[in-house]
Amino acid sequence: MEVVILGGSRQIGNLAADAIEELIRRKPDAVLGLATGSTPLPVYDDLADRHGQGLDFSRTSGFALDEYVGLPAGHPESYREVIRREFTNRVNIAPENVHGPDGTAADIPAACEAYEQAIAAAGVVDLQLLGVGTDGHIGFNEPGSSFASRTRIKSLIEQTRRDNARFFTSLAEVPHHVITQGLGTIMAARHVILLATGAQKAQAVRDFVEGPVAAICPASVLQFHPHATVLLDESAASALKLGDFYRHTYENKPAWQAL
Ligand code: GLP
Fold this sequence. Notes:
Rossmann fold; binds 2-amino-2-deoxy-6-O-phosphono-alpha-D-glucopyranose; 259 residues; globular; seven-stranded parallel sheet; alpha/beta; three-stranded antiparallel sheet
């Protein structure tokens, strides 16, 4: 796991966008794993700017990590809409190449299975963007999630519903159920870049980067990923024991070594 501590969310967005641009130039039909939440927004802003300067997404495809169950199609806070509004509408990804779990499906297990099959049909997720919840969740894999899990329905912990209530008019509107790629699904991505900013993430970051690998902290599974990058601002990094070591390592990284 490479931990990089940067000055702020703009620098984090820029470095993650560098990795995505490098991937797309090397592999124009790359498959991106797309995350929602506030943290990845600077990445999408940066990629939209790069598209304005000619970066071509026409052969790229994207898979969303997760979705609420029960929001009506087109609800502005459904993750399908958020991904469309914040990212895919701002670049030239073909709409048919943008996928998300179907939270409106009558048969949820079938929708989950179909989503796994769609990812498998695309080959492999080349680069998966991730945020992290204050309870250590990735996607919507709440504490206790199996490390082998695939796309499935999950119940949200109240802390997550409260954290996400800011996107809705009241807590009561936040769905209790979600569909999320499993931890096993996420672990199959070639490269995972997790972004975290703000002091409210410091404990979760400390737990998953330096704590034991345990289902109580789902993001800790990334300690087993062969290519995981963690981009943090100073506040999110503030509880890390080895912060100075990560800074020193990044500052002295050989020029030829990419993220
Ligand atoms: C939601 C999403 C996660 C995201 C998390 C943190 O629960 N399902 O994918 O990482 O929120 O969001 P934020 O970046 O807004 O803190």
